[in-house]
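U., I forgot to send this yesterday:
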Amino acid sequence: MRNRRYANDTKVPASQSRNEIEALLKRYGADQTLFGTMTGAALIGFRIKGLQIKIKLRLPTTDDAKAQREARRLWRALVLVLKAKLEAVASGIAVLEDEFMAYTVMPDGTTLGDWARPQIASMYKSGKMPDSILSLPPPRED
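Result:
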């Protein structure tokens, strides 16, 4: 059996998926949304319940038919991911901050994931927790 990727044969234009994401975010309570494009990526930003989120969607850099098909597929996959995360939160299955932790915007504009990935790699390499994390207060119980 051949492994097929989600939405591999979609005909849904990327612009329609982007509009669907914007409507989805509003439906689940986002009070701010931002969409931008650059070579090889799209940027989706939103604020929901005070949490600022930034997701970078890596896209093909060429403009041939194969790249356009892949861009459509990636946008559909992002719709699926966001819908699943937001519905899980709305249904009480998950917590908003947990679902979007890696994409949470830090005070310097980077995401928590950008900051944490090298920290995690360092911990795995050394086998030790960094002193700075050990000195943090324990998490709040809400």
